[in-house]
Structures are given as structure tokens and as C-alpha cells.
Amino acid sequence: MNLKLLCRMFLVIVLAAVPVWAQDATPKSCDAAGIQQAVDELTAAYAADNGGTDSTAALEAATTMRDALDTLVESCANQPEATPTAEPLENTGMPVAGQWRITWDEEGTFNCADGSYNVLRHNRPIILRYEGDALLMEDLFIWPILEFTEAEDSTYFYRRNVALNDGSHFSFEYHLLTLDAEEITGTAITFYDRVDCTLEGTFTLTFENPDLVCLVGAHRGANLRSGPGTDFDRVGRLVAEDLYVVSGQVTGDDGFVWWKLIDDAGWIRSDLVEETTLCATVPESE
Q: Which pairing describes strands 234-238 and 222-225: parallel, antiparallel, or unpaired?
């Protein structure tokens, strides 16, 4: 995933400076995912605290990490293996490809370092489509494409773990709970280990129409024009982190591609927005 997009998503300004082993080394859970997360956090802390080329400092950091790993192992060794918490998937029909709307349950937990990050629960249109057996969901402001794969227990999930250049880790996971031709429900959770950023909630996807359309959106508001150029009148603004359906495109006199929104809502310059995959097939407007 593009690091710039990830930084925008989470508004990360200051990374936590306290090594992980200065905190409780006990994992959040003793299932495979919880243990892996704890080990990843300890590994990232060692990388940040090993003193570079100073072998003495590196040895001290390695010794501290070994002790922390011993604590981790002892905390889980006598616990029974965790049982899966995901509910069985209720599948009453595969979803229809097309335009859907995602709606988030306001009761979820959406906490980040500055307490203001709410883009995950921003209700908006998305695109669902298929490539082979994979169910793809395009939501520009989470990941460009979420590819759901079917597990052996017939559940559908999307999981991604990213190691960033600073040694920190970011994880993101969707689980689908119900599948129907025109409605989907599921859960989502994200965790970013170097800032206090955890997002967890449930969502519903509702089918709107079968058109596989081009959607565009901006992280910040952007001006809409009455024609494909800045010399045309301003007729409104895109709402930040909403998605809009495109009906056509034109290359303006300024050399930029301009997207025409449906219902003659206005034109938006392409470099001010991000777009879904299908925008490459939008026809030229007259």
C-alpha cells in the first residue's frame, strides 16, 4: 500500500518512542494471531533499540528481547489453545456485482492517537466485482482493492499485515458474517502498533444497482467546475471522503483529464481525486 496514503489515513505525526519491552510483554491473546503480533512488536522494538553498529548495545537489546520472549512464552504456555471467535458465514446467495453502499455501526470502537480519525466509518458507495473466484471490494479510502478469499471453513475474509520502513506494523482485517445477493454484513479491525490507533466495528453492505461504474473521491474537499477547466465557474465542492459516480471524461486545454460527474453535478480535475479501477474505461464526453 502507498505509504503516503497510509500516513494520511491515520494522521500519524509522532511515533511512540517507548520500546515495546518497556511495557507488558504479555500478548493481547494467546491465539496464533495474538502471539504473532506480540513477536512482531518485540522485533520492531529491538530494531529501534539495538544501537546500530554498537555491538554492546545490540547484545543488551537482544538480551532484553530474549527475556521479553521468555515472558511471552510463559504467559501462554499453560493456556488452552484459543478457539476461533469468528461466527460461521451465513451464505444465502453470492452478491450481485455492481454499486453498493457501505454503512458502519456507530457503536464500534474508533480510537486513534488524536481521537479524530473517523474515515473508516464514513458511509459511502463502493464497487463489488469478481475476478475468478475472488470477490473484490473497491473502497478508495481504506485500501484501493480488498480481495476477499474463501477459507476452508467457507468464511470470506480480507487480511493484510504491513511492515513499514520505521519498523512498525499495521494490520487490517475484514470478516464477512452474512452473504446475500443484495446484502452483506461483516466486521473490521485495524491496529497500528506505534501509535494508539485501534479501529473496530461492524458494517452492512447494501446493493444499489448493477452498474460497474467509475467512482472518484478526495481526502480533502475540491472545487467542482461547470466545465473541464479552471476558467469555468465554480458550481460546488466535493465532500471530503465521499465517492462520486463519473459519467464521462475530457482532456482539458490545461492538459489534465477532467471527470464529469453524473446528473450534470459538475467537473473535477483528475489530479485532485483518486479513482477506482474502472475509471480507465470511462468514455470521452462531447
A: antiparallel
Q: Say what angle helices 32-49 and 55-77 make with each other, to 10 degrees.
A: 160
**Tens digits of pLDDT across the chain (286 residues):** 443 333 333 322 222 223 433 344 555 666 566 677 777 777 777 776 665 667 777 777 778 777 777 776 766 665 544 334 455 677 777 899 999 998 988 777 766 665 545 556 678 888 898 888 788 888 776 666 888 877 766 678 888 777 777 777 777 788 888 889 999 999 888 777 666 667 788 899 999 999 888 889 887 888 999 999 999 999 999 888 788 889 999 999 999 999 999 888 999 999 999 888 888 889 888 6
**CA 22/CA 49 separation, integer angstroms:** 11
- As a whole number of angstroms, the distance between CA 56 and CA 91 comes to 57
- pTM (predicted TM-score): 0.60
Q: How do the domains of the chain map onto residue ranges?
A: 94-209, 214-281
Q: And the C-alpha cell for 35?
A: 502471539
Exposed / middle / buried, residue 172 (Cβ in 10 Å: 0-12, 13-18, 19+) = buried
| Residue 143 in grid coordinates | 485500501
d(CA 38, CA 16): 16
8 A C-beta contact, residue 189 and residue 203: no
What is the dotted CATH code of the domain comprising 94-209? 2.40.160
- What fold does the segment set 214-281 form as a domain? SH3 type barrels. (2.30.30)
Instruction: Report phi then psi at 43, rounded to 5.
Output: -65, -40
DSSP 279: G
233, three cell numbers: 465557474
d(CA 96, CA 207): 8
Give the DSSP H or E segment for 32. Answer: helix 32-49
